[in-house]
Protein 1
Amino acid sequence: KAGVTQTPRYLIKTRGQQVTLSCSPISGHRSVSWYQQTPGQGLQFLFEYFSETQRNKGNFPGRFSGRQFSNSRSEMNVSTLELGDSALYLCASSPGLAGLDTQYFGPGTRLTVL
Amino acid sequence: AQSVTQLDSQVPVFEEAPVELRCNYSSSVSVYLFWYVQYPNQGLQLLLKYLSGSTLVKGINGFEAEFNKSQTSFHLRKPSVHISDTAEYFCAVKRTGGATNKLIFGTGTLLAVQP
């Protein structure tokens, strides 16, 4: 099976712009989670989706949003970019929301905000 | 709420030496425990996980970890490291109930293997 894919891998934007990141989960996986990784804050949970519904959300401002499509692919959007949004954004997929399910991570999208 | 502490931000070790990366957690609810590895410019790869049963868990690449409930620890060990083990290692917890995949991560430990 192909792994989790994320596009694009690298992105450069300027302050005030908006950006959309895409994640394609492993075939058959219905749950997608997003994490932000920065040197200062480490790995932080953004949100998770299952069956096109947001099930859980981390402590991030409303500028961060996401959605999931019927084929389980997910996108996250960041509006009005700030310098502090520069980070590696990781997507993870799992079969469902059962506690025993393991999450598999993609390679990430490196976002740089200038 | 859950939290994970990795006290060592960096662990230097010589090739073929043993290594232990420490992880302690705090949680008011029952959790599952994980170790992930991140190589430069890559995502996270699962090394091993503790869900239940035997407290000694074996993972990929010769790593193992021991769950100690009384000390709320889940230390990662390898008897002999290789240069290729140089990477950042993250300990994480996930609550056992609540229908969520949300992982709480520690701050990571950089394992630097020297020849």
Protein 2
Amino acid sequence: DTEVTQTPKHLVMGMTNKKSLKCEQHMGHRAMYWYKQKAKKPPELMFVYSYEKLSINESVPSRFSPECPNSSLLNLHLHALQPEDSALYLCASSQKVGGADTQYFGPGTRLTVL
Amino acid sequence: DQQVKQNSPSLSVQEGRISILNCDYTNSMFDYFLWYKKYPAEGPTFLISISSIKDKNEDGRFTVFLNKSAKHLSLHIVPSQPGDSAVYFCAAGTQTLTGGGNKLTFGTGTQLKVEL
């Protein structure tokens, strides 16, 4: 089973709202990722968690705040977003922490910021 | 600087024929390569990978070829089916990095259309 689940599937929020995206995997993977994908572009890495600790932050604005409550869950808290933050937000996980490894992606959350 | 490039934004192939998707990279530190398939509004689905110690990996209808000297890889799909119509991304990473989680660099994608 290589399933990564994400909720919600769609989210519409205003610029003053606070919302959260959730991601879950039960494959025992020790690395989890948040990506942002705009139309006709490749996925763009935002954050990497390794063994539940933030290991990579790709200079993401502080209005995006990740959280890893346990080894199976990954959240992305959103606050004071801008319309240009509208995108597909993808969560992924991989078994290995160091080096390259296959990442398995969830279906994504389509975010629209009004 | 685009370290992983897919120079063909689109490709159209007839059902039953071979689809060949190409990918070039510039970073000689990359030693692990993957292909993902993506439908609109869905997450990328892993297809096949190859390590730099190999030059070919096959899984059913999908074969990936790696030419390290040319820094080029290709994905062959035989026979192509209408359900293969999607965007295909190649991705590259470095297996020897330690700690900190791993980073994959994605190409810009090729839209494959398999026609009846």
